[in-house]
Amino acid sequence: MIPGQFDYVRPADMAETLRILKDREGEAKLLSGGYSLLPLIKLRLAQPALLVDLRDVAGLDGIAETDDYLRIGARATHRQIHEMPMVRDRYPLLHDVTAVIGDPQVRNWGTIGGSVAHADPASDWPAVLLATSSTIICRSQSRERAIAAREFFLDTFTTAIEPTEVLTEIRIPRRPRGAGGAYQKLERKVGDFATVGVAAVVRLGANGRIESAGIGLTGVAETPFAATDAEAILAGNAPAEELFRKAAAAAGAQSRPAGDVRGPVEYKRAMAAELTVRALRTAVERALANA
Ligand SMILES: Cc1cc2nc3c(=O)[nH]c(=O)nc-3n(C[C@H](O)[C@H](O)[C@H](O)COP(=O)(O)OP(=O)(O)OC[C@H]3O[C@@H](n4cnc5c(N)ncnc54)[C@H](O)[C@@H]3O)c2cc1C
């Protein structure tokens, strides 16, 4: 199909971007990598009057650790994140996820900010941000907001971002000693969206027990979600296969998959549980190696 007509602007900086969003509130769409938005426009599933291209806006890139968190600029591509040696060495969970998003072309163009703002119910990043209890920073002309990932994904393709805001960066808590994480994805073929994706993070205490756990699931509900029942089962207990299975059953039970071309409801629930076990095993191995 041929897209409908739209205007296109390429603001020079953040101030101009925010002014345009305010002046054209509700009519404008930000363009980052374009790998989700442009197909929608071509199919006329999205018909914005104005596209605001973020490519010249400084300050939206970069990946760096502060004392408290890993800061990833909204326009960092999946590939840039994957190829950072610091991410590979210190944040294997992020290295896992950036290896399995789409195909190389998608990873070259798609950005973390675009992915999180788009909030596809089967996208991979949200599961990771939920498991790590990350924070999403959004800016408008009047204020900057820090939104907890667990309050950000409201519904299918719906987030807490307002039409006058730009998502500027993601803050992932620094990985402390004794913590490990892993991402497991089931896809029909390489490059596909997740049938189920599970991100798990565990932090072990000095006594070897799980001090805290974070689990994020994607593909098995109307929006990615944190498996809070499973997290509660894990906390305070010694890591063991039986415990992982109990937590995983809770994660499967908390999921609300729809039956579709990727499989029926019961299959997806069972896979959500199985992938939770696998992600937990690897997360604990990595936590032990990071003691
Ligand atoms: C063939 C194919 C396979 C794919 N496979 C996967 C997969 O396996 N897993 C996966 O997770 N994703 C997958 N994707 C999606 C891919 O990761 C996209 O790149 C991503 O979802 C959107 O990022 P983008 O930078 O392209 O955003 P865009 O398409 O530019 O924007 C997406 C949406 O976010 C908004 N937006 C963009 N940036 C901002 C910002 N800074 N602030 C506020 N709003 C903003 C836009 O207005 C738009 O509504 C796939 C895409 C394709 C085409």
What is the topological layout?
Elements: E1 7-9, H1 14-23, E2 28-31, H2 37-42, E3 50-53, E4 63-65, E5 69-73, H3 78-83, H4 85-90, H5 92-100, H6 104-109, H7 112-118, H8 125-131, E6 135-139, E7 144-148, E8 153-155, E9 158-159, E10 166-173, E11 179-186, E12 196-204, E13 210-218, E14 225-226, H9 228-234, H10 241-254, H11 265-289
Parallel strand pairs: 1-3, 2-3
Antiparallel strand pairs: 4-5, 5-10, 6-7, 6-10, 8-9, 11-12, 12-13, 13-14
The structure holds flavin-adenine dinucleotide.
Explain what the structure shows:
This protein has helices at 14-23, 37-42, 78-83, 85-90, 92-100, 104-109, 112-118, 125-131, 228-234, 241-254, 265-289, and strands spanning 7-9, 28-31, 50-53, 63-65, 69-73, 135-139, 144-148, 153-155, 158-159, 166-173, 179-186, 196-204, 210-218, 225-226. With 291 residues, the protein is α+β, with helices and mostly antiparallel strands. The chain folds into 3 domains: 7-53, Uridine Diphospho-n-acetylenolpyruvylglucosamine Reductase, domain 2 (2-Layer Sandwich), CATH 3.30.43.10; 63-173, Uridine Diphospho-n-acetylenolpyruvylglucosamine Reductase, domain 3 (2-Layer Sandwich), CATH 3.30.465.10; 179-289, 2-Layer Sandwich (Enolase-like, domain 1), CATH 3.30.390. Helix 9 runs antiparallel to helix 10. It is globular and about 55 Å long. The termini are far apart. Bound molecules: flavin-adenine dinucleotide. Residues 29-37, 39, 54, 74, 101-102, 106, 109-111, 113-115, 117-118, 120, 123-125, 161, 166-167, 191, 193 line the site of flavin-adenine dinucleotide. Flavin-adenine dinucleotide binds at residues 29-37, 39, 54, 74, 101-102, 106, 109-111, 113-115, 117-118, 120, 123-125, 161, 166-167, 191, 193.
